[in-house]
Write a structure and sequence with these properties.
The complex is a heterodimer of chains A (125) and B (108). Chain A is mainly β and 125 residues long. In chain A, strands 2, 4, 5, 6, 9, 10 and 11 form a 7-stranded mixed beta sheet that branches. Chain A is built from no helices and 11 strands. In chain B, the strands form 2 sheets. In chain B, strands 2, 4, 5, 8, 9 and 10 form a 6-stranded mixed beta sheet that branches. Chain B is globular and about 40 Å long. Chain B starts with a strand and ends with a strand. Classes of the chains: A mainly beta (125), B mainly beta (108). Chain A binds chain B through residues 35, 37, 44-47, 50, 58-61, 94, 98-101, 103, 107-113, 115-118, and chain B through 29-33, 35, 37, 42-45, 48-50, 54, 86, 88-90, 94-102.
Chain lengths: 125, 108
Amino acid sequence: QVQLQQWGAGLLKPSETLSLTCAVYGGSFSDYYWSWIRQPPGKGLEWIGEINHSGSSNYSPSLKSRVTISVDTSKNQFSLKLSSVTAADTGVYYCARGQWLRVPPTSFVKYFDYWGQGTLVTVSS
Amino acid sequence: SSELTQDPAVSVALGQTVRITCQGDSLRKYYASWNQQKPGQAPVLVIYGKNNRPSGIPDRFSGSSSGNTASLTITGAQAEDEADYYCNSRDSGANKVVFGGGTKLTVL
């Protein structure tokens, strides 16, 4: 049974750096891409970025200048840092396991099959 | 284009069939996956690829795709299916993931 458990500071002041960590229990850590996804209050899901076990990462272009995702394979953990936060960064942040599956004959699908419990991050002065 | 478009809200009578759609250019190249989210909970994967259901997802949930449109169909909607539904896909032009804006499903 795969479980993702996440933690981090829930209250930040503007200009501070958001820092969250997600630990993966069960299953393989090296076979997947690991993502961070956020959800502003009352709004939809927004993908932040992803990383694999070797440290190869992809980021949302809109957040790329402020985001760093890192991995610690010795602990099966990955982390998110988002710098210079503002009130617009307030929301619930989720970690998730991403799979990239080939769909014959020529296509693929990206899906998230396990999610963390979510962490509410509030940015307020 | 990196956008996926969903109807903001859809309603269905209890026991009837409802289809929720997701449109976007990336769906011409990649399949969508569908996530169900109930208030205060993390999303749950319900459909991915052509029409794959994770273990534990009822078979009343099904998926299909044509052109730039992916669809999630619930055949015989139940009260517990009332939730927000989000599609997502790999972006066709960049190495990123895109989500639809979500559809709020009400079961009457």
